[in-house]
Amino acid sequence: MKDKPIPNLGAHISAAGGLHNALLNARKKRCTCVQLFCVNQRQWNHPPLTDEQIETFLETKNKTNLSPIVVHGSYLINLAAKEKSTHQKSLKALTDEWDRCEQLQADYYVIHPGAHKGQGEKAGLDKIVASINHVMAKINIGRYMLLLETTAGSGTVLGRRFEQLQYLLEHVKHPENVGVCLDTSHVFAAGYDIVSREGFDKTINEFDKTIGLSNLKVVHANDSKTPLNSRVDRHEHIGKGQLGKQAFRNFLTDPRTRHLPYILETPKGTSPGGRDLDMLNLAMLRRLAR
After folding, report:
1. Which label site among 64, 223, 261, 277 has the fewest CB atoms less than 10 Å from its CB?
2. 148-166, pLDDT tens digit by residue?
3. Displacement of CA 240 from its chain's centroid (Å)
4. Strand, helix or coil for residue 35
């Protein structure tokens, strides 16, 4: 990946009308990195990418010079699924989407680890490890990295605690191809105080001690509608939620985290004044990075 100015900011952009449109629209919003879905995230089955789709995407990738390009996995995927049919479909979807990432030369592929659905934490984590290893044995891994996203931890969802992600990274067969995406809204809802400077330092130190900061590759920059330790995942505009501006200032000014790519997953649309909400949130992040 090419060096980018600090901060490296982007957003999750719709790929409506063609995957390459996500890159073009990201550039229009003054992004330097981008995230997109490579399939319809609410469906299991998808037609293969055509040579034309791949060629157009790669040409646009070179033209826009966005880096990293992050693909977010389908919400349907649950690698810890208790039901056999859901688990089998999740394995198939993970294989297909990861293969698409290789075809599109994306840098990272982000997924939520999964929910154990009553099997228990250890059983769920072991099933996720086995699932990742199974898929890795079937695809051309290359340089492409799977990123496990931190979660708010509602219900039986795994990935709320750093120790759970540490377990996954320590047990997959190819840890060099697996990293972590930290979601600011999720970790806050999971109980990590990243608002106060003391809480932020404690959280980053704990992350480094368990997972290792070298394994942190992407940050999802989202404010939270819900309070600390709520275990509820609800995103809000930057500085408008429970995190406020200070949490993002902590991330964007600390030398341990300042260099990372920050990708918005905040609500879309336009402001009452007609301004694009992504651009307003990006502008806020730029101000907080100074």
Report:
1. 277
2. 999 999 999 999 999 999 9
3. 21
4. strand
Flag whether 251 is in a domain.
yes
> What does the alpha-carbon distance between residue 55 and residue 38 come to, in Å, rounded to a whole number?
15
Q: What is the pLDDT of residues 72-128, one digit of tens each?
A: 999 999 999 999 999 999 999 999 999 999 999 999 999 999 999 999 999 999 999
State the Cα–Cα distance between residues 168 and 127, nearest whole angstrom.
Answer: 10
Which burial class, exposed, middle or buried, applies to 279 when counting CB atoms under 10 A from its CB (0-12, 13-18, 19+)? middle
Number of domains in the chain: 1
Q: By residue range, what is the domain housing residue 75?
A: 8-288
Q: Which of 30, 20, 22 is nearest to 281 (CA)?
A: 30
Spatial CA neighbour of 219 closest among 150, 132, 144? 150
Q: Hey, which residues does 221 pair with through a beta bridge?
A: 264
In a domain, 1, yes or no: no
Supply the residues annotated as catalytic.
Answer: 42, 72, 75, 112, 149, 183, 186, 220, 233, 235, 265
